[in-house]
Amino acid sequence: MSVKVTINREECTSCETCWITAPEFFEQDPADSFSSVVEKYRVGGNPAEGEGPDDLKDKIQESADSCPVQIIEVA
Question: Which tens digits make up the pLDDT trace of 38-48?
Answer without folding.
Answer: 999 999 999 99
